[in-house]
Specification:
By secondary structure, the protein is an alpha+beta fold. It is 24% helix and 34% strand.
Length: 428
């Protein structure tokens, strides 16, 4: 297939200003500085404003980014916050000019980057459909031909002649996405904005983007929802601090993303030290099934907790438990070595204890881990809420369908359904 997007040596630089901090400034210093500035302004009224109070710093949001995307590809763009994803999309959408390099695009680009982008708040939904179509370069006849499909998809028939300034954020998103997807652009760019819509509408949008790709058009999709990226995208780009870390197969990109250390370093070094017993609890790490360290476990995949201890002496008959709590102090579950029958020891000078889950069944979200270590009757460690664990969404059931947050509960369980159809004679 032909190349529809080509990016070469792309860079985007911003100038950051930091106000200088002085150790001590007296009132007389402030008054003298003000008088000096007024004097300069009187003598040189047209001189540029003095910016000596600010330090300037160059910040590269993107640097040396290069890739090619073919027609009909559905490409995920993933990375931690601040990786440069939104900046890249703004450049591809011609909203922001690059500092270095170039971008070549073939065809019309429809972008959905922020709620209500391109809408005029005083115009009605009907008028904004025609306005957006005109911005995308569509003729009035083209828009008319697609009008009924757009309205049906957005589900805003009752409010079509209402000014969009009175729309909720969800209605904004539904209409904006419907316009962008149905007016047949060659390239569709969608940011995390879909998170505003409800679960049912998100599924609807993902299905539409898949259809757009099958029609030979190109989709760029930015999301922190790894399951959605996996199910939709044929390939993915992983960005790290403005650089391309990986380009290729989506599952490999996701694996690399999950292995990246979070910026806030939630997995701490040296969690606790029991001086009386001479035991250091160094850290707890999350491992995938290949033994690689990951920062965010994914629901539906195997997960291991690896706890590392440094010791001055050895201890037999050790019991270890990991409690998983919500932010509201609700315990969802506990993994305990006693009930599993494990015989654990802490052997000097170093011991790793691993707890493996064949399949992570806890619902996606943020949790806190509480860890207890006992040696006989002695309490070695009791560490409540010591580490945060963020569980990413995943294709738990292997059906391409994501768990919905409004299901409630804490766990997912594998199950199946069967319908037994009886004849009239069987029911007698």
């Amino acid at each position: 297939m032909s190349t529809i997007i080509e990016v070469e040596n792309l860079g985007k630089k911003y100038i950051l200003k930091h106000q200088k901090q002085e150790r001590y400034t007296a009132l007389r210093d402030v008054m003298a500085e003000k008088a000096k500035r007024w004097g300069k302004r009187i003598i040189h009224p047209f001189a540029a404003t003095n910016s000596e109070d600010f330090d300037r710093e160059d910040f590269w949001a993107l640097k040396n980014v290069a890739f090619k995307i073919n027609q009909g590809d559905r490409v995920g763009i993933i990375g931690r916050n601040g990786a440069g994803k939104s900046t890249l999309l703004k450049i591809l959408s011609r909203i922001t000019e690059p500092t270095t390099g170039y971008v070549r695009l073939k065809g019309r680009v429809a972008s959905l980057l922020e709620v209500g982008t391109g809408f005029h708040p005083e115009l009605t939904g009907r008028e904004n459909i025609y306005l957006n179509g005109a911005i995308l370069g569509m003729s009035k006849s083209e828009i008319k031909r697609k009008f009924d499909e757009i309205v049906a998809f957005a589900e805003v028939e009752k409010f079509l002649d209402t000014p969009v300034k009175r729309y909720s954020s969800g209605m904004y998103v539904r209409l904006a996405f419907a316009v962008a997807a149905h007016l047949e652009p060659e390239i569709l760019v969608v940011d995390e904005v879909l998170a505003v819509g409800d679960a049912q509408f998100q599924k609807k949008c993902l299905g539409k983007m898949e259809d757009v790709g099958k029609e030979g058009r190109t989709v760029l999709f930015v999301s922190h929802n790894m399951a959605a990226v996996k199910n939709l995208c044929t390939s993915s780009i992983l960005l790290t601090q403005g650089h391309v870390e990986y380009i290729g197969e989506t599952q490999k990109a996701i694996n690399n993303y999950l292995r990246m250390s979070p910026s806030n370093e939630s997995l701490q070094e040296y969690l606790a030290y029991n001086k009386e017993l001479g035991v250091i609890f160094k850290n707890i790490e999350y491992l995938d099934d290949d033994g690689n360290i990951i920062s965010c476990p994914q629901v539906g995949l195997p997960l291991s907790f690896r706890m590392s201890f440094h010791l001055l002496e050895s201890y037999d008959n050790v019991l270890v438990s990991i409690g998983v709590e919500t932010s509201n102090d609700l315990r969802t579950c506990v993994f305990h070595s006693k009930v599993s029958g494990a015989q654990l020891k802490l052997v000097s000078p170093h011991t790793d204890i691993i707890c493996r889950l064949p399949k992570l069944t806890i619902f996606p979200g943020r949790y806190l881990l509480s860890i207890k270590v006992m040696s006989g009757d002695k309490m070695v460690f009791w560490l409540p809420y010591v580490v945060e664990m963020v569980i990413e969404d995943g294709d738990f059931f292997g059906t391409g369908r994501l768990p919905e947050k409004d299901w409630g509960g804490f766990f997912l369980a594998e199950h199946n359904w069967t319908g037994i159809h009886k004849t009239k004679e069987d029911s007698l």
